[in-house]
Write a sequence for this structure.
């Protein structure tokens, strides 16, 4: 009887050990699957962040190129405006010179007319 009880006890322990090993394996498999799923989920976020950063870098390069082009165009416009302003000043100077010459010619004409009138008299 004692030997049968011992045998029965050993079989029960063996069954429990097998059940515990099975549960341990299932727990490890579940933990491994959870870890893989978590890493995959995080990798999706990291990949998306990487793609966003890559796009941002490209947009920053494009913006820098566009800003440089805009700066060059602005300098060209400023140069054109400066040349235009200078030309307008020159035209103003020519107009002023022409008015001065015209005034001098009228003065000379008036003087000649007065001299002619005096000479006729």
């Amino acid at each position: 009887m004692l030997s049968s009880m011992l045998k029965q006890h050993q079989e029960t322990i063996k069954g429990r050990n097998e059940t515990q090993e099975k549960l341990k394996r299932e727990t490890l498999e579940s933990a491994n699957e959870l870890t893989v799923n978590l890493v995959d989920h995080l990798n999706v976020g990291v990949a998306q962040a990487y793609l966003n950063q890559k796009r941002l870098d490209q947009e920053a390069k494009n913006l820098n190129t566009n800003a440089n082009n805009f700066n060059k165009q602005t300098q060209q416009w400023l140069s054109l405006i400066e040349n235009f302003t200078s030309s307008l000043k020159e035209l103003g100077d020519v107009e002023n010179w022409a008015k001065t010459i015209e005034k001098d010619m009228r003065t000379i004409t008036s003087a000649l007319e007065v001299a002619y009138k005096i000479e006729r008299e």
